[in-house]
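User: Structure please.
Assistant: Input sequence and predicted structure:
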Amino acid sequence: MQAGAVPVSRSGQTAWPRDWDHILAGWSEGVTYRMDWGGSSFGGRRFHEDVGKSVIGERPTLQSPAMIGPDRAGRLLAFSSRAVLAAVQAWRHFDLQRMVSPVWHVAWLNGISDAGLVGFRSPSGVPGFDAMDVGTADILFCAEVLGPVGRLTGHAKEGGRPRFWASPGLSVRVDPEGIFVRGAALADGWWHNGAVQPLKGGGGWLKISRYTIKWEA
């Protein structure tokens, strides 16, 4: 581990650091970050221009995930280095700077951009998602997808018809059974007893909400 970086447990896992210099140093050494371990905030991180370029190398997900974090029920999800890069791409695609939220999967990318949109919890709400209001739209998040799921405009409070844009590299399908996603930013599996157990889903699709939302894609 590089000098000044955060301590790492013998299993190669550690809590999410407070600034991007330490985060990148850990990834360069193969560290797995645990988002369920306390001690770090998700705001005020120093901007780091290298994030999203070559910040993390490919690694075997089953042995060494890049990140491990809980879903709403507290079950642990494992994410690959590929998911990290997809999340950074989506964050920058929607020109985001900071999400004001204590929820890890909403705010972990705070600090990678020094300008952009700031989001607050949306008063409209979207069932099955954490919706953040950035003024012109809601940015949708869920624990199973690393980074933004997509952008939703035409809020019900505005009297418009909702329209949705999925994040780059992510496909979102809505049918009578609920909302399904697939793509690079999706979790690779559940973390259980020190190993990754693949997520169940046909054709790479994972159901993330039992609710059905009528929107135009």
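The first strand starts at residue 13 and ends at 15.
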